[in-house]
Design goal:
The complex is a heterodimer. Chain A is mainly alpha-helical. Chain A is 72% helix and 1% strand. Chain A starts with 5 loop residues before the first helix and ends with a helix. By secondary structure, chain B is an all-alpha fold. Classes of the chains: A mainly alpha, B mainly alpha.
Chain lengths: 401, 66
């Protein structure tokens, strides 16, 4: 009977046994993490739309490492580091997710598709209800995006890497993806993963920040809903197209993001039902699904094992924490300007994780005062936050590219 | 209605003037003036957007409380 080696039968295990022990440990940890993401996503603790495909991708890619030649190991999922066009043509025919990565991920298209989806589910009228407070709080909630940059530089990152990680403070996944792809391509995988990981944790973490910073008495402040103006479709359309044009003129490098967001807004306000259904269904959910799956697949131990990952983990958390605090500070300033008529909890909604942070704000207020409705006021800063994040991404990319 | 249009036009003009400062005038200036003019341009552009947004609200409040 020929000498039968069980490890040859299960190449995924063989590559683990014969590989670098550090990478082996990282692969085991990432498989476990992937399984945990699927479980927590299905349970609803983490954002299921991203975390379930990401978890599956993460677990499978780290279990699927095989011998590509006598000496080299790898997977037939994706090769994110390939740059030579001739090699790319070969890989496109072998790695099954490579076409999606090359044609939608590495050029930022997937971020723009998600942005179109966000645009189509966004009502820009909320900004027009209270333009000053919306814009002011959104700017305050970018504090993390601004302050994390010097902190990151002080921690040893280059300017481009620092800007990419600072954008996490804007709490906008597609924006982080877009910026890091342009500014720090080598680190875009860990930065984007850190961003999405933390974004799904904002739902769990921000309520504690609100409770810590705002006393119960202030959390229960009722907002005056009688004063709410009705914004017409024409006004929303005009505002959207003028703002889009001006922002594109000012920051052409972030033009794709502005166009994607505002085309969604304009399609919604134009009431073209078939386009709305197409963008908010197949485009948004399709791109979110592939975004999650590809992020998971990119978490292959060899790709993600970077000495800077720990720094990125700290900086990502710092950025979101400072942004949350900045938003709350903005809420407090509005509270004092309006002489106590403004609920400071709305400040947290300036962190533009649409519509998560606005919902978090409403939930926290409801816990204290069942009569208090702040959602229409919280959505304004929330949507303004998307625009200010894109503006800051544009500024960083323009200055540092 | 006429007042609203005035705000729209004023806001748009202010914003586009800001864009012109940033994109057309500032690049032709020396480094010191470039930053100042560009900053003024950015501020002007955002202020224009704010005028448009503010006009909508003012107008709506007038309709609700004649």
């Amino acid at each position: 009977m020929p000498n039968f080696d069980i490890l040859n039968l299960f190449q995924g295990i063989a590559t683990m046994v014969y590989g670098d022990p550090t990478i082996t440990i990282a692969r085991i940890v990432l498989i476990a993490l992937g399984i945990a993401f699927v479980y927590l996503g299905a349970k609803g603790t983490l954002e299921p739309l991203i975390m379930i495909p990401m978890g599956v991708g993460m677990a499978s890619v780290n279990a699927s490492v095989l011998y590509l030649s006598a000496t080299a190991t790898g997977t037939i999922f994706i090769d994110p580091m390939i740059s030579d066009p001739a090699q790319l043509m070969d890989v496109l025919q072998i790695d099954f997710l490579q076409p999606i990565y090359t044609l939608t991920f590495s050029n930022g298209l997937i971020a723009c598709l998600v942005f179109m989806g966000i645009g189509v589910i966004t009502d820009i009228g909320y900004i027009l209800i209270a333009p000053f407070s919306s814009m002011f709080i959104a700017i305050m909630a970018e504090l993390g995006t601004i302050l994390t940059f010097p902190i990151a530089v002080a921690m040893g990152l280059t300017y481009k890497e620092a800007a990419s990680v600072a954008i996490i403070g804007g709490a906008d996944g597609p924006m982080v993806l877009y910026t890091s792809l342009i500014l720090a391509k080598d680190l875009f995988v860990p930065i984007t993963i850190v961003a999405y990981l933390y974004l799904s944790l904002t739902y769990g973490g921000y309520p504690y920040l609100i409770k810590l910073c705002i006393p119960k008495r202030l959390r229960g402040i009722k907002m005056d809903l009688h004063d709410l103006p009705e914004i017409t479709r024409g006004e929303k359309l005009t505002f959207a197209i003028i703002t889009c044009t001006i922002l594109c003129l000012l920051f052409p490098v972030a033009g794709p993001l502005f166009m994607s967001f505002f085309v969604g807004v304009i399609v919604k306000e134009s009431e073209v039902t078939r386009l709305i259904e197409f963008i908010e269904g197949p485009v948004l959910y399709g791109s979110t699904f592939f975004l999650g799956l590809l992020l998971g697949v990119l978490c292959e131990a060899n790709t993600i094992m970077n000495p800077k990952v720990f720094t990125l983990l700290i900086l990502g958390m710092t950025a979101l924490l400072i942004s949350g605090l900045g938003g709350i500070l903005g809420g407090y300033i509005m509270y004092f300007i309006t002489r106590g008529k403004y609920n400071p909890v709305i400040g947290i909604a300036g962190v533009s994780c649409v519509p998560t942070t606005a919902k978090v704000a409403q939930k926290e207020v409801r816990e204290v005062n069942k009569q208090a409705i702040i959602l229409p006021f919280a959505m304004g800063p929330n949507i303004s936050g998307v625009i200010t994040s894109a503006i800051l991404a544009g500024i960083y990319v323009t200055l540092l590219r | 209605m006429r007042e609203r249009k005035l705000y729209w036009i004023l806001g748009s003009m202010t914003s586009f003037s800001g864009v012109a400062l940033v994109r057309l005038l500032a690049p032709r200036l020396s480094e010191g003036s470039y930053t100042a003019v560009a900053l003024i341009g950015y501020a002007l552009s955002f202020f224009g957007i704010f005028i448009i947004a503010r006009a909508v609200r003012k107008n709506q409040l007038k309709i609700q409380r004649p």
